[in-house]
């Protein structure tokens, strides 16, 4: 793939991250006590945008993020794929909870790689870690379910920030071809 196509794909991944983040912040305040088709479709769109956003972010930070970044990328993609799949249980395992946990672990590793690469604002990986920590605490400790709102907002804001940087500086991630 030539550099122009790589830049375009990374840039569009940045836009997907911005949209995913904005929608994730908005849906954090949506009353979820009454799931319906519209809400499920919105989550599907958000999950797909998250997936494309992760691809763009990793395309942007790439090799500079090291092994931790690559592992985070793989876990984040796998977690998003699990969450996007059908809800319910598989052999007693809540697939949404499992996918969310894998995605959260991926975000932590991606945060380490992102910090190492110094390509994203440092507050982005900090919010990724906050997303994971507040999500885990909200799931594990009775009475702290409100942390899911914190987790959703932190995730959304971090994806908007990452997406803006990726969108605006995608051309700096393209491999440089030597001039003749």
Keywords:
mainly alpha, single chain, two-stranded antiparallel ribbon, about 180 residues, disordered C terminus
N to C succession of SSEs = HHHEEHHH
Oligomer: single chain
**Sheet with most strands:** 2 strands, antiparallel
Radius of gyration: 16 Å
User: What is the count of helical runs?
Assistant: 6
SS content category: mainly alpha
Q: Count of DSSP E strands?
A: 2
Distance between the termini: 20 Å
Mean pLDDT: 88
| Low-pLDDT residue intervals, each spanning 5 or more residues | 175-180
β-sheet strand percentage: under 5%
Write down the overall geometry.
Answer: globular
DSSP helix fraction: over 70%
Strand order of the largest sheet: 1-2
Number of separate domains: 1
Give an overview of the whole structure.
Strands 1-2 form a two-stranded antiparallel sheet. The protein has helices at 3-28, 37-61, 66-84, 95-117, 123-140, 147-169, and strands at 89-90, 93-94. Strand 1 and strand 2 form a beta hairpin. Helix 1 packs antiparallel against helix 6 (147-169), helix 2 crosses helix 6 and helix 5 (123-140) packs antiparallel against helix 6 (147-169). The relative contact order is 0.19. The chain is mostly helical. It has one domain (3-173).
